[in-house]
Amino acid sequence: MPDLGKYATEVLLSYGVTILLVAGLVWVSWRQSVAAKRRLEALEDE
Fold first, then answer.
1. pLDDT tens digits along 8-36
2. What is the DSSP letter of 1?
3. Among 18, 19, 12, which Cα is nearest to 4's?
4. Residue 9 CA, distance from chain mean position
5. Which chain regions cross the lipid bilayer (predicted)?
6. Nearest-10 Cα torsion for 12, 18, 22, 25
7. How high is the pLDDT of residue 2?
8. For residues 32 and 40, is the Cβ–Cβ distance under 8 A?
9. What is the DSSP secondary structure assignment for residue 3, as one 8-state letter?
10. CA–CA separation, 23 and 40 (whole Å)
11. In b/e form, how buried is each residue of 2-34, taking b as 16+ CB within 10 angstroms?
12. Would you say residue 4 has pLDDT above 90?
């Protein structure tokens, strides 16, 4: 791990927040994909 100096806390916190936001976006996209597939299957069954 590189030496981040006196800004280590801020940098690591920023990395953590970024990882959480990206993971959240992936989760939301996945949930929307599942919901869209279910709606499409329901429409195709009609």
1. 999 999 999 999 999 999 999 999 999 99
2. -
3. 12
4. 22
5. 12-30
6. 140
7. 76
8. no
9. -
10. 26
11. eeeeeeeeeeeeeeeeeeeeeeeeeeeeeeeee
12. no
At residue 46 the predicted structure's pLDDT band, cuts being 50, 70 and 90, is confident
Q: How far apart are CA 7 and CA 25, in angstroms?
A: 27
Which contiguous run of DSSP H or E holds residue 16? helix 8-45
CA distance 22 to 20: 6
What's the pLDDT score for residue 3? Answer: 85
Which residues are CB-neighbours of 12 under 8 A, at least 6 positions away?
Answer: 4
CA distance 18 to 23: 8
